[in-house]
Every structure is written in structure tokens, then in C-alpha cells.
Specification:
Elements (H helix, E strand, L loop, with lengths): L7 E4 L5 H8 L7 H10 L3 H4 L2 E7 L2 E8 L2 E5 L3 H14 L5 E5 H15 L4 E11 L11 E3 L5 H16 L9 H14 L2 E6 L2 E11 L3 E9 L8 H16 L3 E5 L5 H10 L2 E10 L1
Parallel strand pairs: 4-5, 10-11
Antiparallel strand pairs: 1-2, 2-3, 3-4, 5-12, 6-11, 6-12, 7-8, 8-9, 9-10
Helix pairs in contact: 1-2, 4-5, 6-7, 8-9
Protein name: GNAT family N-acetyltransferase
Keywords: Acyltransferase, Transferase
GO molecular function, one term: acyltransferase activity, transferring groups other than amino-acyl groups
């Protein structure tokens, strides 16, 4: 039975899924992570590995906050951020990352920073980009969906990308088994794309989260000894073309503002900026 809340913050559950998805649909490309999590877990804490909180005003759900390994604000304004922040202060830090639209992340940091301490890394300027039409350049014909037999070549490339991007190995602290399972899952879903040459990956990217209308791409990587050849632009053109055909019609991602080669590649493909994200990593 649904819990009735007139105003304030409470954890959401299965009875709230429809209302929560209506909230994420206000900005579906920005909120694809939250919508994907709601669709795949039905907001059950056991499946979420955490909770999703809702902020209610006069009985209406006006904002959300995913509280798991990732802390992600959803359609949260200043008052919502303050309410979520106060609840988070009472709880203490259990998350490893705060990520989302820049104003909301800044607001959370203003509330939580003194208590939670400095993050390991702060990435305040991350353009959020969307491509929802045909690529502007010719796709790389050698980029294809990965197959189970590709795992031996794909997995080391995934570890290399993760380590280069985040500064720590996904295998650290006994995480290899879980990360291997995740890579296999993406292959099984048809969400892993790569160009393979002589048994190794020279370009790759994955769909991380998806809804019927939007797919978020992560893990874009070019083998270091093949950078500067245009593989990223042509490869991403192929990913956009294939993802729009097989997963969802709109493709999004966010990129560090200082990564000029990646930003140039995405612009060539036809990605345009729609928002700015920030990420704080602990």
C-alpha cells in the first residue's frame, strides 16, 4: 500500500514508480540513470543497494535523490537540496560519488562539504551532450556489438579505461569479480561496442543505462598507441548509429571539460550540449 506524504522527504517504493518516472520524464536525457534504476529495480531497496528518496510538497512528488553508491539528485531545486542535505547529514556519508546537474551538486556540496570532508577528486565542469539524429560523419564500419567470445580482449580494455578515467582500478579491494560480471552483462545486453583488430580492442564504448527513449554512453576509450587517428569520432558515429537503431533514439553522455580531443570528436559526430554535470569522487 502506498504511503501518503503531504510534505517532506521519505524513501520511495514500488507504489511510487509511476510518479517517480513522471518526474524523471521532465528531463529524460539528464535523468536517464534514475529512470533506468527505477525501471529495473521498481525502487526496491534490496535491488537498489540503497534507497531513492522523494521530496513532497502538498502531496506532490517534486524532486528525488538516489542514495546508493552514487548520490544523484533528480529535478532538485534549492529547497529540495536543503531537505535532502539535512537528511544526509543525519545519515553520514555512505556514498562514493556525487554526480548530477551542476547546480544541484554544488548545493549538496554546500550542505555536506564540512561534514563529509574533501572528495578525492572534483570535476565541476562536465558538459552533458546529446545526439538524437544521424551522425554527421561516416561511421567506422569495423565497430560492432561485442560478443561473448570477445571477452578476453574486451575486459583488459575496460579495466584500462576505468583506471585511466577514475584513477583507481575496478579490481581494487576484491572488485574484479563484480566488474567482470558487469562487463559480461553489457555484452549480453548488446550494450558493448568495439573495434577489434588482431585480438585486441582499439576503440570501445558502452551503453551504461537506458530507457525506451534515451541511452547514456560511458567508457569511451581508444587504445593509447592508436590515438590521434580519428578512431574516436568515427567509432562514436558508429555507436550512435547502432544505439539509436537497437537501444534508444536519443544518445547522451557527459565529458570532462578539459578533455578537448574527446569534445572535438563528439562535436564532429553531432553531439550538442544540453546541460552541465559535476562529479565529486570520494
Amino acid at each position: 500500500m502506498r504511503t501518503t506524504t503531504r510534505s517532506g522527504v521519505r524513501p520511495l517504493g514500488a507504489a511510487d514508480v509511476a510518479e517517480f518516472l513522471a518526474l524523471t520524464d521532465r528531463n529524460p536525457t539528464v535523468n536517464v540513470f534514475a529512470a533506468h534504476r527505477a525501471r529495473t529495480t521498481r525502487l526496491e531497496p534490496r535491488l537498489l543497494g540503497g534507497e531513492v528518496w522523494g521530496q513532497f510538497v502538498d502531496g506532490d512528488l517534486v524532486a528525488g535523490c538516489h542514495v546508493g553508491a552514487n548520490l544523484v539528485p533528480i529535478e532538485a531545486g534549492e529547497d529540495d537540496i536543503e531537505a535532502f542535505g539535512e537528511r544526509l547529514l543525519r545519515r553520514g556519508r555512505t556514498v562514493s560519488t556525487i554526480v548530477g546537474p551542476q547546480p544541484a551538486v554544488r548545493g549538496l556540496w554546500d550542505v555536506l562539504g564540512d561534514s563529509w570532508g574533501p572528495p578525492r577528486e572534483s570535476r565541476w565542469e562536465q558538459p552533458h551532450l546529446v545526439a538524437d539524429g544521424q551522425p554527421l560523419i561516416e561511421p567506422d564500419p569495423l565497430v560492432r556489438a561485442s560478443r561473448p567470445e570477445d571477452f578476453g580482449a574486451l575486459y583488459p580494455a575496460c579495466v584500462a579505461m576505468y583506471t585511466e578515467e577514475l584513477g583507481v582500478s575496478p579490481e581494487l579491494g576484491g572488485g574484479a569479480e563484480g566488474y567482470r560480471a558487469r562487463v559480461r552483462q553489457l555484452v549480453q545486453l548488446g550494450w558493448s561496442f568495439a573495434r577489434y583488430e588482431r585480438g585486441r580492442v582499439v576503440f570501445k564504448a558502452e551503453v551504461a543505462f537506458a530507457t525506451p527513449t534515451n541511452a547514456q554512453v560511458q567508457g569511451v576509450w581508444v587504445n593509447p598507441d592508436r590515438r590521434g587517428e580519428g578512431l574516436a569520432a568515427a567509432g562514436m558515429a558508429a555507436v550512435v548509429e547502432q544505439v539509436r537503431r537497437t537501444v534508444a533514439p536519443s544518445v547522451s553522455l557527459y565529458v570532462n571539460d578539459w578533455n578537448q580531443p574527446a569534445r572535438r570528436a563528439y562535436a564532429k559526430v553531432g553531439f550538442r550540449q544540453t546541460d552541465t554535470f559535476s562529479t565529486l569522487m570520494y
